[in-house]
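[Discussion] Sanity-checking designs against the backbone

I'm trying to build intuition for which residues belong where. Below is a structure token string of 218 positions. I'd appreciate it if someone posts a full sequence so I can compare it with mine line by line.
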């Protein structure tokens, strides 16, 4: 995997200088994960942050009773995750699981922290974190006000693009969790959309009505 190219094509690291991207590339390792393989567990000591190259990783957190997990986020390709261990806490606050075969650039925490001794790199990284925080705040504000069917279409567009045919590679149960809905609620939404001919999920493929994305404003 060309880690420098991966960094260049991500929303966040893409605006780093070439010098800073070279510094990160030099300390990062490529690592493959099989479907359902755990990258890290909630509560474990945070040893690394990750950048997803291919596949999909789901981040989940135990509920208050500890008897089930709640999906916090589905990481899409090109996203940085687990960076919270750099400054806020030493342990992973969530569990990361590859929900299909995935390839990540793994950046060891100790080696990354040494890069922050470089003033130029440190300033660039702080700007990156602030930019990501603004993005997540806006995204949360948007998702809170969305209806479940809008959350579904928002998720599909964010992760697969405005396509007429999508092979999600995840189960309906996992997708329901990713949009913070119950499987029963998602089933009702899919039934309603199917009757309208807007979206049909048959087997492993989702078919969306031609021209839908051009009119969709969600």
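Best answer:
Here's mine. Compare freely.
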């Amino acid at each position: 995997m060309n880690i420098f190219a991966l960094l260049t094509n991500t929303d966040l690291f893409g605006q780093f200088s070439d010098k800073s991207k070279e510094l990160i590339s030099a300390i990062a390792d490529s690592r493959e994960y099989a479907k359902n393989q755990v990258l890290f567990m909630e509560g474990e000591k945070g040893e690394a942050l990750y950048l997803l190259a291919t596949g999909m990783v789901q981040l989940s957190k135990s509920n208050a009773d500890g008897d089930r997990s709640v999906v916090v986020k589905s990481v899409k390709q090109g996203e940085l995750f687990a960076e919270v261990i750099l400054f806020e806490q030493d342990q992973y606050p969530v569990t990361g699981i590859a929900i299909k075969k995935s390839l990540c650039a793994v950046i060891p925490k100790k080696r990354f922290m040494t890069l922050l001794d470089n003033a130029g790199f440190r300033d660039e990284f702080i700007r990156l974190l602030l930019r990501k925080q603004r993005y997540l705040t806006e995204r949360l504000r948007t998702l809170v006000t969305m209806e479940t069917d809008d959350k579904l279409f928002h998720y599909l567009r964010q992760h697969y693009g405005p396509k007429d045919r999508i092979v999600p590679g995840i189960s309906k149960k996992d997708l329901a969790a990713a949009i913070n809905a119950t499987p029963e609620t998602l089933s009702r939404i899919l039934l309603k959309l199917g009757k309208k001919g807007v979206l049909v999920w048959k087997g492993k493929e989702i078919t969306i009505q031609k021209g839908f994305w051009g009119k969709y404003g969600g």
